Amino acid sequence: MQQVSIAVDIFIQQILNGLSIASVITLIAIGVTLIFGLTGIINFAHGEFLMIGGIVTWLAVSAGLGFALAVVLAILAVGLMGYVLERGLFRFTLERPTNGFIVSLGLIVVLQHVVVLFWNPNQKSIPRPLTTVWEVGGVRIASVRVMVILITIAVVALSFRMITASRYGRALRASVEDRDTAALMGIPVRRYITGVFVLGSALAGLGGALLIALFPITPFTGGTMVMKGFAVALIGGLGNIYGAVAAGLILGIVEGFSAGYGFSQWTDAYSFVLMILVLIVRPHGLFGGTSGPRMAS
Amino acid sequence: MSLLAVSDVITGYGPTIVNRGVSLTLEKGEIVTILGPNGAGKSTLLKAIAGLIKPRAGNIAFDGADVTGLAADVMARRGVVLVPEGRKIFVDMTVEENLRLGAYARRDEAAVEADFETMLSFFPILAAKRRDRGGSLSGGQQQMLAIARGLMTRPRVLLLDEPSLGLSPLLVKEIKAIILGIGERFGASVLLVEQNAGLALAVASRGYLMQNGRIVVSGPIAELRDMSLMRELYLGGVAG
Ligand SMILES: Nc1ncnc2c1ncn2[C@@H]1O[C@H](COP(=O)(O)OP(=O)(O)O)[C@@H](O)[C@H]1O
Ligand SMILES: [Mg+2]
């Protein structure tokens, strides 16, 4: 009996751990999938956007600001960065999304090295914003992980509401489905593209702030995170944000489960194994994706 | 002054030239047709007028203002709206959402609601399928939806690209009645591109014949009907 109940405790903790990391990955995956859906651009620098969100949080907290304010700053800073990069770079690649992809590869190097140049390549961490650990029937629950999960749920729910219920969300979905025909309805598709870059970047900024609340980061943290973000976006179906969220949840449970049963050294591989399996069986992802923007001209 | 005036417009894609200097006009309240064989450049011309592609040269004037090269969303806001070839309805959205997208740029909410109700009564099939996915409609129903969605923008010029494509003769008759009603009920002038000469000749008052990217003949519809070239191209030819 004792044996079994310990196993369950560990299991619940590991699921929570898995879900908190999956939250961060889901935030990346939503941005990746939205930007791809509307522009066909696969933005591989999205992980660096996340990393910069973490760095901004670290700078703000180190300067004595509270964590909540630091999160807001990270969201604003990375959102602004997304705006500048879309207006300054990606808008010129809209006719050829492959060029956007190549631009994003270049951005990875640039962003990493800018951060290294100013703030060295070492690990950076902040004190945990919440230190309470609840003990519920022998299960130890770190409040900081619960915070990360709850913030993600709130942000995802808000994004969903915007996308399904508002006039802007309807226009966004129309633009994802068919850019030219959306324009024929009077929808300023270019502005929506900018908006999606800003929103996706802001979510990555939030993800970075939440990540550094859980773990130390380095200027090179973006790489693995973006790979997992892509895995999640692909599992859910590229361009499908419902799919991205559902796949993020699946990944969190799978990673937590496997770590709880002694395969933690493989954790980073699960998302890719899962992705490969899903793509073999369902090439458009579990929930069906878009094939990028359709253009009539 | 014409409501819409296209002058010497040249269009193309990459290295290919499609329209080689096209001029035409559309007056307020008119239904005018552009006829011509597949590949003549009719759809490309409509795309240039609607702002989906930029003309390489030439001029487009709408309501006295130069609108050459304006983007499609700006043209739609000004009142020039294309119902594209192949309908292009949003298949993942409901019929209602498709219609409401047509009103995206409008701020006159009471009038939008009134128009929405008008569409449901003008196109009863859309009322019945209001909550269905656009993709679940039949070809004819999708065409009705595409026209209704276009009308929801409150256009002053409606550009219709082959609305009869792939429809049964019965549905073509229905589309014909709808096109004839557009002017009276919605106050829009219509530029209709068709390969179905029967439909075009029945609804339009004037017509242009396009071949290899050029207008080769133009005139009142009765003259076009009698023209030997027309006969050769359509009545005894491709369209049967
Ligand atoms: N997106 C495109 N890219 C390149 N060529 C095109 C494109 N669309 C049409 N064309 C070419 O332009 C010519 C005119 O096409 P189109 O305007 O669709 O003719 P129509 O509507 O009269 O049948 C055709 O030769 C067609 O192959
Ligand atoms: Mg055509």
Defining key terms:
heterodimer; A: 297 residues; mainly alpha; ABC transporter involved in vitamin B12 uptake, BtuC; two-stranded antiparallel sheet; 11 helices; globular; B: 240 residues; alpha/beta; Rossmann fold; four-stranded antiparallel beta sheet; 40% helix; disordered C terminus; binds adenosine-5'-diphosphate; binds magnesium ion; ATP hydrolysis activity (chain B); P-loop_NTPase (chain B); branched-chain amino acid transmembrane transporter activity (chain B)
Written overview of the protein:
The complex is a heterodimer of chains A (297) and B (240). Chain A is mostly helical and 297 residues long. Chain A has one domain: Orthogonal Bundle (ABC transporter involved in vitamin B12 uptake, BtuC), CATH 1.10.3470. Chain A is built from eleven helices and two strands. Chain A has helices at residues 2-39, 46-62, 67-88, 97-119, 143-165, 167-177, 179-184, 189-214, 222-236, 241-260, 267-281, and strands at residues 133-136, 139-142. Chain A has a two-stranded antiparallel sheet. In chain A, strand 1 (133-136) and strand 2 form a beta hairpin. In chain A, helix 1 packs parallel to helix 5 (143-165) and helix 9 packs parallel to helix 11. The longest helix of chain A has 38 residues, at 2-39. Chain A is globular, with a radius of gyration of 19 Å. The mean pLDDT of chain A is 89. With 240 residues, chain B is an alpha/beta fold. Chain B has one domain: P-loop containing nucleotide triphosphate hydrolases (Rossmann fold, 3-Layer(aba) Sandwich). Chain B is 40% helix and 26% strand. Chain B has helices at 42-50, 72-78, 95-102, 109-122, 124-128, 139-152, 169-186, 197-203, 221-226, 228-235, and strands at residues 4-13, 16-26, 31-35, 57-62, 65-66, 80-83, 157-161, 189-194, 206-211, 214-220. In chain B, the strands form two sheets. A six-stranded mixed beta sheet of chain B has the order 6-7-8-3-9-10, with helices on both faces. A four-stranded antiparallel beta sheet of chain B has the order 2-1-4-5, with helices on one face. The longest helix of chain B is centred in the last third of the chain and has 18 residues, at 169-186. The termini of chain B are far apart. The structure holds adenosine-5'-diphosphate (ADP) and magnesium ion. Adenosine-5'-diphosphate (ADP) binds at residues 13, 16, 18, 36, 38-44 of chain B. Adenosine-5'-diphosphate binds next to strand 2 and helix 1 of chain B. Chain B: One of its GO terms (biological process) is L-amino acid transport. Chain B: Pfam families: ABC_tran (PF00005). Chain B: Belongs to the ABC transporter superfamily.
